[in-house]
Amino acid sequence: MPYELQSAGKGSPRRAELAQITGGSSQCPFLIDPNQNVKMAESKDIIQYLYKTYAIYTPPNEFLGRISNIITPVLKPVFQTLAPLQAGSNREDKNSYSTEINNAKVEVEKDIGSNSVVIFTYSLSPFCKEAIGVLDNLNIQYKEISLGAEWIPLLINEGGSQKRMALSEMTGQSSLPHIFVNGQSIGGLYEGLIPALENGTFWALMKENETDS
Predict the structure, then answer these.
(1) 8 located within any domain
(2) pTM exceeds 0.90 for this model
(3) Domain containing 122: what range?
(4) Of 25, 92, 120, 194, which has the fewest Cβ atoms less than 10 A away?
């Protein structure tokens, strides 16, 4: 993105110019965007504004992304092992278990069809919060389906384990967040939503709904 950088270090005459523009403050950095007639200070606000105004999306926490790259390959097989156990696959009555999962699949299908963008979450998960933040910054209308505070026993909602297992059987993914766009699973945050935004898949799926309507 083309821009003009004005250096205004301590002792620089530009400090006085900046104070005139801002009405007395010479705080740096200070952004002037003539395209939107916006003037603002504070690094955090400036970065958020530039991403929201000129970027495809506002990226999630970079440090959390590094953690995800490390722990996801390790935890994925753990989640896939625990998901059926938490849903009751080890009970003696196998027919009852199958019925519950099938019923959960019906509920999940209804959830997925209830909005163009649907995100299944845990309320305490930082990855889920970051995914919601990305959608919020894009001003995307979405429906959040929370399965509980977290995946561990006593924190997951009643029926949440069954829905989680239903999602696993339907898509192969048992971890959350899990995002669907017009009924199609795009996966989680770093391995799903972000790549879909960057390669245009997300927007292509969104346009499918516009075309159908």
Answers:
(1) no
(2) no
(3) 62-212
(4) 92
